[in-house]
Amino acid sequence: MSTIPAFHEMTAQAPALEAVNAEMQAIGAEFDAAVDDEGRLAAVDRWARLERSISTWGALVHLHFNQDTRNPDYQKAREECDRISPALGNLANEFKRKLLRSPHRAALERRLGTQAFALWHCDERALRPETEAEEIRIAGLCAEYTELVASATFEFKGERLNLPALSKYFSDSERGTRYDAQKLRWQWVSAHRERLDRLFDELTALRDQAAHKLGCQDFVELGYLRMRRVDYGRREVEALRQQVVGEIVPLCSELVERQARALGIDKVMYWDGEIHDALGSPRPRGDHDALIGCAQEMFDELGHGLGDFFGMMRTKGLLDVKSREGKAMGGFCTAFPTYGVPFVFANFNGTKSDVEIFTHEMGHAFQAWSSREVRIPDYLWPTSESSEVHSMSLEFLTFPWMEKFFGDDADRFRHAHLASSLLFIPYGTAVDHFQHLVYENPQATAAQRFEMWREVERRYLPWRDYGDLPHAADGGLWQTQMHIYLHPFYYIDYVLALVCALQFFVRATSDREAAMRDYVALCTRGGAAPFLELVRAAGLASPFAPGTLGATVRKARARLDGAR
Ligand code: ZN
Questions:
Q1: How far apart are CA 394 and CA 520, in angstroms?
Q2: pTM of the predicted model, to two decimals?
Q3: Residue 42: which pLDDT band, with cuts at 50, 70 and 90?
Q4: Partners of 332 in the beta sheet?
Q5: How many CB atoms lie within 10 A of CB 76?
Q6: pLDDT at residue number 150
Q7: H helices, E strands: number in the chain
């Protein structure tokens, strides 16, 4: 551990395309000239080192930009990274293609695992030089979206606030304050509708164009390949949607009615959504430093190496969770594979979501740390539905320690978190279904897309009522859902992962140690297997198997009252 430098000492040289090209040619030649498996594997290891250093550079560049979106040097570095990343990906793909076509593939698969080859097969189809121009333009538009949203400032209650700071008031215990804060937010979105529409028009057209260039019928097909889904497809997701409509929507309608009773109101309006009882949203006690201190105690007690790991992240400066102007919104975990460490980014705003986002991102971070020794760079992170199992499960596995953050309000926190997790299932499914409609109908106008969103809301979120909030009431809520712009088709992954995380939650209530052991073992595997195999090995039922979704949600729901 002493060999890990502090974050501020971490550097990564921007790779020169020609130099990477020369190194890749040399690695290819070494592979071809090798006389046995050991020689071929040595070439694979040399490639893996190169990939790790490129991905460390990319992660640092993107993190710096997110830490200060207004810094011109960081902007420039990110633009350069976006400009050459597609070409770097294409060079890596050339080598992957060599491995896929190698007469020694069977022997390599035995040593490296079949999953890498399945993933590379997706990459071979989905990432090709023909669409480089589209990818560069898409990255530029995505950065424009990020900068636009980060630039939003609001005058509220005599303060100048960015969106994460304003969103603190979305869960205020005063109903009028919640409404006013939401109104301000949606006025801002409404004022930027033209730009948000234009960005999405362009993104949709470019993604559709890329799909056709690569021989896919639409961007849905290409999107699935880019998500590297190797053991399920459109049909399974479609069947899951049916289960959500049949089993989860009625149950969530009931939860929302119960929420109205708990709040003593006739109807849960959009601005009440985050409040689950009459006392309002529970808030963590103490400032940033106090919360980090509580987190250290919690991880120490949780065991299984989490305490030492978190201590390392603190001493090495691998956390940036304070909100400030110019910092990109949201929370994420990234990693620097050369150094073998992750980094957690968030925007604390004094609400319960600080704890939720923090435990979530720490789950990603713990997985990245646990599997840092994997041989193949493609195994450092699993595909995203598997990744989200690590993060969402930790949100629930840390439940017994919530007194440290919320004191007497810990039960109210657990109840609110569990209820909002269950309510997330239809929302997540709606976001995913919407994207299918968008990319199956790439010619749709902006107004038609608003109608599509209203259609999925009626199906999955029939209780939603935006009152007179501008924009949202017209079907524009999706324009604030970052993933729809930046990470197409990522959203169902949260639903799939949540069904797994809820299973860990239920198991932990009866046998905590067994659940923790399986959780840690799952993290240690990283991405060495596809989703359904990881799920099976962790002793969980597949979210696609008929009945799993309903049974899991019913069991979790039965603990809702206990959580209060
Ligand atoms: Zn996540």
A1: 10
A2: 0.93
A3: very high
A4: 345
A5: 12
A6: 85
A7: 24, 5
What secondary structure does DSSP assign to 91-136, as a single string? HHHHHHHHHHH-TTHHHHHHHH-HHHHHHHHHHHHH--GGGHHHHH
CA 381 to centroid of ligand 1, rounded, Å: 12
465/450 Cα distance (integer angstroms): 15
What angle (nearest 5°) sits at the alpha carbon of residue 367, between those of residues 364 and 371? 145
Residue 391 CA to ligand 1 center (angstroms) comes to 6
Count of CA atoms in the C-beta half-sphere (13 A) of 269: 18
Spatial CB neighbours of 92, under 8 Å, sequence gap ≥ 6 = 24, 47, 51
- In 3D space, the residue among 435, 421, 434 whose CA is nearest the CA of residue 499 turns out to be 421
Q: What is the DSSP letter of 171?
A: G
What crossing angle do the helices spanning 410-440 and 446-460 adopt, rounded to 10°?
130
Asked if residue 66 lies in contact with residue 328, where contact means CB atoms within 8 angstroms, the answer is: yes
With residue 48 as reference, give the H or E element that holds it. Answer: helix 37-67
285 is written with which tokens? 């006690």
Find how far residue 166's CA is from the centre of its chain. 22
* Sheet of 319-322, strand order: 319-322, 341-348, 332-336
How many CB atoms are located within 10 Å of the residue 555 CB? 15
Please give the distance, rounded to the nearest whole angstrom, from the Cα atom of residue 497 to the centre of ligand 1.
9
Q: How far does residue 281's CA lie from ligand 1's centre (Å)?
A: 22
Residue-wise pLDDT for 482-522, tens only, equals: 999 999 999 999 999 999 999 999 999 999 999 999 999 99
Q: What does the block give as tokens for 125?
A: 């189809």
List of E strands, 329-402: 332-336, 341-348
Spacing, Cα 490 to ligand 1 middle (Å): 10
Other C-beta atoms closer than 10 Å to the C-beta of 24 total: 20
Angle between helices 548-562 and 249-263 (to 10 degrees): 20
For residues 397 and 502, is the Cβ–Cβ distance under 8 A? no
- State the Cα–Cα distance between residues 42 and 53, nearest whole angstrom: 17
CB 516 within 8 A of CB 305: no
Q: Which amino acid, one-letter code, is at 11?
A: T
> Residue 431 C-alpha to ligand 1 middle, in angstroms?
16
Strand partners, 343: 334
Kindly report the number of other CB atoms within 10 A of residue 510's CB atom. 8
Spatial separation of the C-alpha atoms in residues 75 and 81, rounded to whole Å: 10
- Which of 81-90, 177-186, 366-375 has the lowest average pLDDT? 81-90
